Amino acid sequence: MAGLPVAGLLARLLAVAGLLAGLPVSGLFAGVLAGVLAVAGLLLPGLALLLAGSGLLAGLSLTLLTLLTLLTLLLPVSGLLPGLVVVMTRLPRRRLRHEWRSP
Predict the structure, then answer these.
(1) For 11-36, how does the pLDDT look when each residue is reduced to its tens digit (9 = 90+)?
(2) Contact 22, 76 (CB under 8 A)
(3) CB–CB of 16/38 below 8 Å?
């Protein structure tokens, strides 16, 4: 039973890492997913405690949280690149009208 508090702590740390990774990067889905991870990790110390907590369930919950955290890290990057391309192609091009004149 001593493994359950450690599993809960690791789940919380993973959730906070997912929140920190997902929110600063643009992408609403990543932010929402990271927020759900953070709430689940902070309020519930892992899925294992909900399901009466065996070592196997604690491991599965940590694996799930790890995968979701990695997904949270990858989704903003994959969503950011097409967004940057769209923004860069639709930005109005400014023409430089400054002419350097010699005195």
Answers:
(1) 677 666 666 665 554 455 555 666 66
(2) yes
(3) yes
**What is the chain's percent helix, strand, coil content, to nearest 5?**
75, 0, 25
15 and 69 Cβ atoms separated by less than 8 Å: yes
- Give per-residue pLDDT as tens, 24-70: 544 555 556 666 666 665 555 555 455 444 555 555 666 677 777 76
Tell me the whole-structure pTM to 2 decimals: 0.25
Contact 14, 62 (CB under 8 A): yes
Residues 38 and 13: beta-carbon distance below 8 Å: no
Count of positions (residues) in the chain:
103
Quote the CA–CA distance of 46 and 50 in Å, as a whole number: 7
Q: What is the DSSP letter of 30?
A: H
Show contacts of 55-58: CB within 8 Å, 24+ apart: 55/3, 58/3, 58/4, 58/7
